[in-house]
Amino acid sequence: MINEKVENILNSQINKEFYSAYLYLAMSAFFDEIGLFGFSNWTKVQAKEEMDHGMILFDYIIERDGTVKLEQIDAPQRDFQNPLQVFEKILEHEKFVTDSINCVASMSEDECDLATRHFINWYISEQVEEEANARDVITKLKMFGDEKSSLFHLDQELAKREYKAHSYKN
Description:
By secondary structure, the chain is mainly α. 75% of the residues lie in helices and 0% in strands.
C-alpha cells in the first residue's frame, strides 16, 4: 500500500497535470483564433500528453492500492498576446511542473517509498524534454522577430508534431 503523504502529493500532481492539459487547450484555441494552426496542433498534442501524464499517476495510485482523489481544475489563463509570449508562459509553467515533480521525488525518498521514487524518475526525464522543447521554440521565435515568413515556416514545422501516447510501462 502506498504511503499516505506520497498518495496525497501524487493526487495533487494529477490535478497539476490535468490543469496543464486545460492550459495547453486554451493556448491551442488562441493559436486557432489567430490562424497559426501548426502552433495550435503543437499545443493540442501537448494537452494530450499532459492528460497521459495525469492518467499514468492515476493508474499508479490504484496499482499501489491507494485512493485517487480528483480535485477541481481551475480555469486556465486566456489573455495571450503573441506566440513568443505563449511559449514563454509554457516554459514558465513547465518549470513549475518540474519543481512539483522534484517535490514528489523528494517526499517519496523522505518517506522511504522507493517504488514511487523509482517511478517518478520517468517524470523527471520527461520534464527535461518539456523544458527543452519550449526553449527551442522560444529561441526560434526570438531569432525571427517580426519576420512573418519565418513564423509561417515555424508554424508548418509545428504542424508536423504527432501525438504518441505516453505510458510509463513502454
